[in-house]
Amino acid sequence: MTDTLTIAGKDYRSRLLVGTGKYRDFDQTRAAIDASGAEIVTVAIRRTNIGQNANEPSLLDYLPPDQYTLLPNTAGCYTADDAVRTLRLARELLDGHKLVKLEVLGDPHTLFPNMPETLAAAKTLVADGFDVMVYCTDDPVQARMLEDIGCVAVMPLASLIGSGMGILNPWNLKLIIEQARVPVLVDAGVGTASDAAVAMELGCDGVLMNTAIAAADDPIAMAQAMNLAVQAGRLAYRAGRMPRKTYSAAPSSPTGGMIAPSRPATGQPA
Q: What rounded mean pLDDT belongs to the chain?
């Protein structure tokens, strides 16, 4: 890949962002992330120890901040106040770290975003100096509002978190991509490598995933597959696909110099 993903003024070679939850242990987490080629890894502050529990193993021992860009997230938060409080804690634990992922959930069953609370939290966090990447619905109007607030990336869901259903509404994603002045990354719903490739072919700037890798039978192999899929999808997007047609009368091979075909049989004697 010769082009880079730029978020909050920093360039990244990889357009695949990965989560750190649901793995068997921290060793498997590190192995999968290495196979994915990801440079940005997201961490659920409420579920993962990054120093707040001194007597437990810390993720930072396996994914040191000098090797990866950590992206603290607010998974498990259902109000703007909880999300803001969680990310302020993360900033303290990570020595003033500014880049964060905001998600405010609407209910524990679907994990669908609560957009009024998300917008409120985004306003507070941006005003407080955070660089906010934000999980949101695939609503182009809401995405534009988040960008206008000052979020550094919008991250619409492809389908519900952990569902593996892939991209259910490519048309809305295209609308968001066409209007956006900040990176657009698909977040949630990717199930396999083809889903990631489709997201990139649509023009997304990147893909964030966790369950699709961690819940695979072989997470290490799936991480490598996702790495290749994101690269292939981005290259295909930049190359520009051929137009879709119901049929094509133009042969793909040259016809000059061919032996003239015989006339179709008509059922009449010669």
A: 90
